[in-house]
Write a structure and sequence with these properties.
172 residues; eight-stranded antiparallel sheet; alpha+beta; 35% strand; 31% helix
Length: 172
């Protein structure tokens, strides 16, 4: 049976501010564990979440739908896991100055490692987005995690090296 995860957070901010944080390009996205999003948002285009220096790629996907500032749908695959892509749907709706963000992560068939990882990380990411939009920074816990991740980047799986990702793309 296909697993489907739904995660929701309410943020005291206009939808445009929340959307801007989620779709921020070529800058560090603190809520997304310090990664940088690269894409042009056109359906069919590739998207990646990479390290700041561009040497590592952690998530790859393809844009399916992009309707600012309400909906963003894309595939999702961790580069260090040999699992098929899954599907992520971001839906935003604003009511009385509060934006509800709903992330639905689906199309899990046999991607158990991905499902286990995102089950908790989406909760953290949504809370991080809330914190950044409402206060300007991520919580202390996330800042400490980001510091540790940065210090130990040299130990990240070789599958995350950008050269390996480019090679994988060319083999398809």
């Amino acid at each position: 049976m296909e697993e489907r995860q739904v995660h929701v957070v309410e943020i005291k901010a206009p939808v445009a501010d929340v959307w801007a944080e989620i779709t921020k390009l070529k800058q560090i996205q603190k809520p997304m564990f310090g990664t940088v999003l690269d894409t042009d948002f056109r359906p069919g285009s590739r998207m990646i979440y990479r390290s700041e220096d561009g040497k590592r790629v952690f998530i790859i996907g393809e844009v399916h739908e992009f309707v600012p500032p309400r909906r963003f749908v894309h595939t999702f695959r961790f580069t260090n896991l040999a699992e098929s892509p899954t599907l992520v749907e971001w839906n935003l709706e604003e009511k009385s100055g509060v934006t509800r963000v709903t992330v639905t992560h689906s199309k899990f068939v046999d991607q158990t490692k991905t499902a286990d990882s995102v089950r908790t990380s989406w909760v953290d990411i949504l809370n991080n987005i809330k914190s950044v939009v409402e206060t300007g920074n991520v919580p202390l816990k996330t800042r400490l995690i980001l510091g540790m991740m940065s210090a130990f980047m040299f130990m990240a799986p070789k599958e995350t090296l950008r050269a390996n990702i480019e090679e994988l793309k060319e083999r398809k």
